[in-house]
Specification:
The structure holds two protein chains of two kinds. Chain A has a domain at 63-279. Chain A has helices at 2-10, 14-21, 23-47, 53-78, 86-100, 105-131, 137-155, 165-171, 180-194, 197-207, 209-214, 219-245, 256-266, 278-297, 305-331. Chain A is mainly α. Chain A is globular, with a radius of gyration of 21 Å. Chain B is α/β, with parallel strands linked by helices. Chain B has three domains: 14-91 and 172-248, P-loop containing nucleotide triphosphate hydrolases (Rossmann fold, 3-Layer(aba) Sandwich), CATH 3.40.50; 266-339 and 425-508, Rossmann fold (3-Layer(aba) Sandwich), CATH 3.40.50.300; 352-423, no CATH class. Chain B has a six-stranded mixed β-sheet with strand order 6-7-8-3-9-10, with helices on both faces. Chain B has a six-stranded mixed β-sheet with strand order 16-17-18-13-19-20, sandwiched between helices. Chain B has a four-stranded antiparallel β-sheet with strand order 2-1-4-5, with helices on one face. Chain B is globular. Chain B starts with 13 loop residues before the first strand and ends with a helix. Residues 1-7 of chain B have low confidence and may be disordered. The chains are: A mainly alpha, B alpha/beta. Chain A binds chain B through residues 1, 3-4, 6-7, 10-12, 14, 17, 20-21, 192, 195-197, 200, 203-204, 206-208, 210-217, 270, 274-275, 331-332, and chain B through 64, 83-85, 88, 100-106, 109, 113-114, 116, 121-126, 143-146, 148-150, 153, 187.
Chain lengths: 332, 508
Amino acid sequence: MQADRNQASLRASRSAHWIGRNIGLLLVFAILAAAIVLYCAIYFVQQNTLPGNFELTSTVNNTMPLAMSGLGQAIVILTRGIDLSVGGIMDFTNALAAIHMQDNPLSMVVWTAVVLGAGALGGLLNGLLVGYGRLQPILVTLATLSIFQGVALRVLPEPGGAIPPRYTAALVNTDQPYALLYVLAAALLWMALRRARIGVALFAVGNDEQSARAHGVDVVRTKVIAYTLSGLLAAAGGLCLAANATAGDATSGNGFTLTSIVAVVLGGISLFGGRGNMIGALAGAFVTTMIVNILFFAHIDPLYQSFYEGLFLIIAVVLGAALGGLLKRGRG
Amino acid sequence: MSDGAPGTAGAGEPAVEATRISKSFGGVNALEQASFSARFGEVHALVGENGAGKSTMIKILGGRLRQDAGELHIKGRLAALHSPLDAHKFGVRTVFQELTLLPGMSVSENLLLNHEPRGAFGLINRRATDQKADALLADLGIHHIDPRALIEDISLAARQVVEIVRAISQDPDILFLDEPTSSLVEREAQWLFGHMRRLREAGKCVIFTSHRWAEIAGVCNRISIFRNGRDVGSFDEIDEDEAITLMTGRRLDSYFPARTEYTPAAPLLETRELSGRGLHDVSLSVAPGEIVGVGGLAGQGHRELFFTLFGADKATSGEIRIGGVAKAIRSPRDAIRAGIALVPEDRKSEGLLLPMPVRDNLTLAILPRIARLGVLPLGLERKLTSRIVDALKVRTPNVRNAVGNLSGGNQQKVLIGRWLLAEPSVFLLYDVTRGVDVATKREIYDLILRLAAENRAVLFYSSDAEELAHLSHRVLVMREGAVVSQLHNPGLSAEDVVSAAMKATLAS
């Protein structure tokens, strides 16, 4: 029968399934590779040598705040939500750390915990309003963005405070790209999350809330957890931001609301929820940093930077959509 | 395995009892004091025309909808179902007509969500999940579905099978299946009937809805018939003609105006071997002044036919001719220009701007024509819209009232009125009386006849066989995207239309 004849072709190999599910992830890594090659080429033309350890370290360190907040954003977007308060939480948390952290291990540990807790609490507020309040995520997080920004300015009206150099060295070592370890840790954490009940629930809720409920998934609880994790990761991003700057600035986090969404989109995660891989958001964050690096070494006027960033984003998204469509047609 | 399970009763004992259930949606009664009961050890068919209330009853019994009034007893206990999960606790599983699968996740994840095998640290073992899903499928005799494939990548029939496998594999005592065979091929349908019989022999209760008489007669040992939101009888044995009579019935409240005769003339609307997605070689013609009805079971390509004629769906081959001239209709804009109007069934999503005034909704399609240098002459607009509101008896305090405040029937009249202003020569009416109260229905019938009397061509689809039989000069019966038979008035009855539709499907 037809069905039996098709059996062999229907049972595609494990790798074929993986590719089918992770087209977006493959694409972002291809873009990342292309950006790295382009960067190296421009660097070589300018400097007559290849980029070394220093460039790698500063690139990784510069990416950490975005990588962290992008991961949080990815978790929320997987549930078909959005978290615009990411920037506000980073404003608030980096200011908090810069003001209070003293140059002794106890203070560093305590304030790291307090700052992460504050971020998680902010996220929890979003989650409660979205989950139990049944309010639109875009509305809730736009309002809390404003609130967190206000609190940040109250905490640190003018840029200042200080991050102990030892803390900077521990969090984002300036000599070696130690921060890559966090990336690795985040990737491992994701793999575990994807296989835990909450990870499956995130995907299920993003796919179809009604159906997820019918399957016994606690939709409200899943959303609360997603926004809380996003707040926690934004706080981690805020700490990295403060460590990089060695001081606090209650407005330096603002841009991350949008760039975290950019990293997620570049990473091949659907804004409609339920589809994608969080590792893609990490790669998307690195692509964003590489674009800035390329523009810098190509001697593009910094005033045009955001113009070119936008241009790259549109090209990447259009390419991604076209390629995805082509692959789908090829398989179907 | 459920022999010793608590709450399991033996064959012959009552499984579900729904007593005088009422449910309405926005003023339209889907169920009116309908009762239904089924026992363990039976396969029970719930039959009726489209809109008779079968799906609503199953959704209520499955915990998907809440009844407005009436009581449910499951296994002899009073059941207050707030979600499908509450129904699960009673051992009830439901295969809903709109599938509840998660499209971006794999077959195995869908089959085993919240029941995945776990390994180290309590994390899901994906390989074991796939293997377990494979075993579940194989146990039920399914070998052609890959558990690792995404739901969105498999065929509609395969999705239906996955949904059924999920329900059966959770070992239900009571299984509801709402139109489970609608997208299955014969072999898969036979597979399902085999399992339904097996469950019956194991003392379970299986309740399903279907439009196909052959399968109803072949697998059921009890039949309940619904009509117009009410139960009209339950039988151990009934023949097809009797059942159809009960399903259609003679509705005392229905009223149909006398059809006007039309003089045969060259067709105004004509299609030649029109094909597209879900549409196969449809050739039809409608003369000016003629009313042609389109019938058949739900989902046989009517919607595709109407939307293709209106340019909203793409035709892959064939042609559409208006007044004997072939027209390229690639968008609704082209259709409007060719003089075609479509009044859809879903007023909210496909036609009206609910928060906007009646006036603006009426003039939407003719704005370019009445505007002078891009500016709307308000006097002319007021005159035109008041005339339509009066002519169609739209019940609204004034033309500035938001359309969303009107009743369903009056909304429908506004939509028809919009097209009247555009003065098209061809009217496509898609199930326009659905969810409309009886009094407004009569006014719409009069309106349909008037459209024909003004020498327009009217093509109309209705889920109500009686409407088709009484208003149309001819009825075309569709099956799987093709016109399979043609019935002529005078002398046509609703029974003729329903039995033609069912026989058409039977032949497949």
